[in-house]
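Structure, all two chains, one model.
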Amino acid sequence: MKPIVETKNLSKWYGNVLGLSDVSLQIEPGIIGILGPNGAGKSTFLKLITGQIKPNIGNVRVKGQPIRNNYHLFSIMGFCPERDFFYEEMTGWKFITSLLKLHHFSQSEVEIRAQKALEIVELVEDKDRVIRSYSRGMRQRLKFAQAIAHDPEIMVLDEPLSGLDPLGRRKIIHLIKSYKGEGRTIIVSSHVLPEIEAMTKRIILIHQGKIFAQGDIHYIRDLIDTHPHIISIKCSDARQLASKFIQQDYVLKVHFSSSNDSLLIETNNRDKLFSLLPSVSIENKIDVDEITSPDDNLQAVFDYLVGK
Amino acid sequence: MNQENTRRFSFFLNSVKNVYSIFLSMGRKAKKTKVFFLFSFLPVVIAFIIKFNQIFSGRGKIQGIYIFSNLIVVFYLQFLILILALFFGTSVASEETEGQTLTYLTTRPIPKSAIVLGKYSAYTTLVILMMSVGVLLSFFILNVDNLGNFSLYKILLRDVIVLGLGIICYTAFFTFIGTFLKKSILVGLVFSFGWENVIQYFPGSTQRFSIIHYLKSLLPAPRTGRFSFLMFRLEPSPTGTAIVMLFLITGIFLGLACLLFSQKEYILED
């Protein structure tokens, strides 16, 4: 399949700070997730492929054409920025219609498209309010609306789910997934693995400005699953619970809290531990109050993988 | 080939027109416009005080049109249009970078130069309208007892045209400064009240390096009187030359602003 976005040896520095280093990849139609912790270089990559910043080394081609100053390409591209900035005194309606005007649509088409985009993100009722008065979630949905309003073939979405409530997230995820079937190319970034996982299986892992891994999401899942996890369990009898778990070969370490009401278990098989926990607690009449995973975040996983 | 060029030109003009209509509408409602609109009424208040004093003190020897001409030079030409052009011209680029809204415009199928020209045209229109309201009110207040004299309207028209040219030229210059420098307001203030107010009084050709020299060249020679020193100028350029120079300066700085805005990389800060 012909790549829609192609980068060759893409590198970017901000003064002495490395933004992105030697990124060469080809993006084909479908949904691709750009995953990495905060400051990994995701936004830099997305700004480079939308021509907003110039690479120090390398080049970007979208549909075979260089992107920088090639404004015609934006008739088929939509970009949702990460930053929460707007023309605050505009209404939501004015914001969307103004930006649609810049696509040279007729006035009637502008209005039809704006109405449709606002319906998709469920902002029709609030369209006449000034953006300044919008909540964080509404602002995020408005940003998304301006990226899809002109029905682009390529969508570049930088952290489109941040600031949304769980229901809002689910709707946007569902919407993004629905675009996949239409043959579009959607490049979506996030620092939250489950968010990306819910949208696509194809991911690119970015860490410290470099492509750390790319491919099927199962690959990263496997890596993560072999990463020792720390599970914190708050319960009525921490020592008894520990005595049951310590016999399992997938339990590597057990620590007790100073108050003796919780224990930290280090395991290399989270799933097995979680499947055993209910039966152990029932058989031994141990009340489990809370289960948390202190290191279950992408940064911890990356640190582990890089260290590995 | 010709057809292709015509198509491209019409696409470009359409892009400028669309940017213009968006920012004219947005600029009209902006807080900044409201503040500067009030600010532009300062000469109107002064005109009102002068006229009020003339009427009630009974010392109405000085003609209204004479005071009006001096008001144009002192308050409008050397102060107000500079301030308005400075704040609106520099904001063409800086409000997009400082407000971090630039992304919304640069990810649209329009040339970056159309963004500059569209915003410049919108803000120039706003400034000319703001200035014209104040000028008209000042004129009517100062000449309230002589409104039947139609020769005065010729003077009014000439002054409005000169001020309009000044706004067009200064806004183009400050648009360029705004695309070029981060601290554009500070540099603009130094230019407006340093360079422009000093260099015009230099003898020889040096005065021709100021915009105000060409604007003053379009006004009649100063009449003798207590304000005549304010109209002081050494060697006015011919009217035709002055107009050509004003348009040339406008064209050069707008061209540079478009070029710079298209090529420069604006890194929006966190």
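Residues 227-305 of chain A form a domain with the Alpha-Beta Plaits fold (CATH 3.30.70.100).
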